[in-house]
Amino acid sequence: MQQQHLLVGVDVGCRKHHVAIGGPGGITEQFEITHDARGFAYFFGRVSEQARRQRLPVVVGMEGTNGYARPLDQLVKDKGYTLLNVNNLKLARFKEIFASPTKTDSIDAQQIVTLMMMAPFMEQVKESLQPVLTVSEIEQQLKRLSRRRRQLVQEKVNVQNRMQVDLQSVCPGFLDIIHKVDALYVLRFLSFRSDLRQLARLRPATIRSIPGIGVTKAAMLARWQSSAVFGSEIAWVGPMIVKDAKRLLQLKGAIDSLEAQLEALVKQSLLARILDSIPGFGTISAAEVSGEIGT
């Protein structure tokens, strides 16, 4: 690879990226770019000039494409360059074996180029460099939306666990009656008043006016009202519970919206449809797996 390609190593940072360019004679150029349009233009200007001068096709290696590498990694693909994703764990091992006297971002960019130079001669090194293929927009959407959904689901779990602990401490007995704290009617009930103590005095007709609460659920809440007791911290913990209930309602709505989008995208992806046809997989699991595999 080192004799037939211009090798570009990019050490990705959150605001700046360090770049090293290597040709048949070794490292020829090093520089730093900002993560903005001006920095990207400078990057492609320097790389294209070297490629023109040496008459070599370009291969770009990045540690951790996606993430902070966006949108530079996609711009590299759009430019027609070959893009390699450098395995971060194997690169770390490589840097341990071929340690440099100093540790700087520019040295890391050089070591990415060195790793690419050694790839034709070492099978293990080849495994550290994975080509980033061009994928369809559907797979990209599946990946981003499914990851977003997982983040919101995790946030929902965290908020729900926190709210349950708070309810147990200032509204003892409430959880024993309603059982499922993330049920829509429960969240709407808890967020119906800014002061939880007012909920114990709501009239039956008022409770039944809350969406999702019919005669049966209203009777359950009436049982809690008849024996409602509040802890000494209710004055300041109560508003926290109300805010958490409102946040859970928002999260449930956002998650439902994402799941609807994912279900529609699954129908447009051959890989996702195949996975969805496997017993026990499910549409959301098919969307998540196909998004990761497809990209």
Describe this structure in words.
With 295 residues, the chain is α/β, with parallel strands linked by helices. The protein has 2 domains: 6-134, Ribonuclease H-like superfamily/Ribonuclease H (Nucleotidyltransferase, domain 5); 138-294. The chain has 14 helices and 6 strands. It has helices at 37-54, 72-78, 88-97, 105-118, 123-127, 137-170, 174-178, 184-190, 196-199, 204-208, 215-226, 234-266, 270-276, 283-294, and strands at 6-11, 16-23, 26-34, 58-63, 82-86, 129-131. It has a 6-stranded mixed sheet with strand order 3-2-1-4-5-6. Strand 4, helix 2 and strand 5 (82-86) form a beta-alpha-beta unit. Helix 12 (234-266) crosses helix 14. The longest helix is centred in the middle third of the chain and has 34 residues, at 137-170. The protein starts with 5 loop residues before the first strand and ends with a helix. The mean pLDDT is 88.
Report a brief summary of the structure.
The chain is an alpha/beta fold. It has helices at 37-54, 72-78, 88-97, 105-118, 123-127, 137-170, 174-178, 184-190, 196-199, 204-208, 215-226, 234-266, 270-276, 283-294; strands at residues 6-11, 16-23, 26-34, 58-63, 82-86, 129-131.
What descriptive keywords fit this protein?
alpha/beta, 2 domains, elongated, 13% strand, single chain
